[in-house]
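Thread: quick sanity check before group meeting

JM: Hey all, I'm pulling together slides for Thursday and realized we never actually wrote out the predicted structure for the chain we discussed last week. Dropping the sequence here so it's in one place. If anyone has concerns about the input, flag it before I start.
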Amino acid sequence: MKFYGIDLHHDSFIAAIIDENNQITTRKVSLHLKKFTEFLKELSKDDYVAVEASTNSFWFYDQVIVLVKECFIINPWKFLQIYKSNKKTDKIDAKKIAKRLRYRILCDWDEDDLPTVYVPTHEVRELRSLFNSYKMLIK
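JM (edit): ok, ran it. Output follows.
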């Protein structure tokens, strides 16, 4: 069982990974097909992933949810360890997400410890996209 904390960007992400021995490793992964596919191959059904909400977090969620036990999208405005942090780097954020994910799974399961956003169905997301496109077209 591994815990992945992901700080996602439009073309890459920083992954902090806590393994079975409690060792934390971090690395940058490109979202380009070859590198991202290699990352997906290392995931297993025993793993947990938490990704910070951003513009492409639902897309990321769709890619990993079928490969892992559970995937969470973190609300950064309610996750105070990130929001109120003095030291704000992608690597630090990813580590904080991974550590809090591990705590939530192994110890507590309290929503306040890892505030998440609702992930609507794929159909609802498609409809939202169509409505937004329609609104922009009208303007």
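AS: nice. DSSP finds five helices and five strands in the chain. The two ends are 49 Å apart (CA to CA).
JM: adding both to the slides.
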